[in-house]
Amino acid sequence: MITISRATFFVLFAACLTIAAYAGQQKPPSASLNFLVVREANGKPVRNAEVVLHQVDPKGKQKEEGLELKTHEDGKASTSVVYGKWRIQVIAHGFKTYGEDFDINQPNHEITIKMQKPEGQYSIYK
Length: 126
Known about the structure:
The protein has one helix and seven strands.
């Protein structure tokens, strides 16, 4: 007959409880985000645009951690995120920075972002 010390029994028992606790947790639902970044003037893709995503709390404050993506030659980038409110910013050389909050609540989102050329700046100094 095999005997187990009390310490070994309690370690095994604690391990089983931990495994059971993790098994009972459900992962939050996630969504697939597909971005297409194009020029507003002619609809051509913008490559190497930086797409920055930050989750936003119910008070509208963005969380510290975030995701950064780069668009490919076809202006596309994609990732997966958990459901919730996300702040999306797009930065590309020669274009105005784009920013908007999105409520991600479906499994798939196709987001097209039209980048605009910057407007002329005005100065009292000439």
